[in-house]
Write a structure and sequence with these properties.
Largest sheet: 4 strands, antiparallel
Number of strands: 4
Strand content: 15-25%
Number of domains: 2
Distance between the termini: 11 Å
CATH architecture of the largest domain: 2-Layer Sandwich
Structural class: alpha+beta
CATH topology of the largest domain: Alpha-Beta Plaits
CATH class of the largest domain: Alpha Beta
Number of helices: 4
Shape: elongated
Strand order of the largest sheet: 2-3-1-4
Order of helices and strands: HHEHEEHE
Radius of gyration: 20 Å
Length: about 140
Amino acid sequence: MQASPDSPAAEIAERAGLAAATLSRRVERLRDIGVLRGVRAVIDWQVLGYAVEVSLRITLDKSEPRAFDDFAAAARTVPEVIEIQTFLGQVDARLSVIARDMTHYQQVYRDKILTLPHITDVDALMHVARLKTDESLPL
């Protein structure tokens, strides 16, 4: 199911060596306990014209009590931000930002990223290639 969630339940049950009803109960139980959070479409944003991805390492003003919350809330509103991670250490957050081209990226960076609250430093890393991306568990 993890490898091809859009496969028919009967096919998944057969590959797992289960009856369809047993598979259905197990899947429902996994949903109920929060292991399966949903099924989603994986969109290739490059096919839609986004050619640039930049990883921004952000340092926040830690003297501000709401810095993390305010920053995260504001960053969530930027459509070009496709991922937000927070860390303990020198870097406080990382944003993955996509853009159609470098001109678009510069506009997003200046108009949307630099206006996010409580930023004290930004370090940009231009993505060259994605060598592996996999959210599946090694079962």
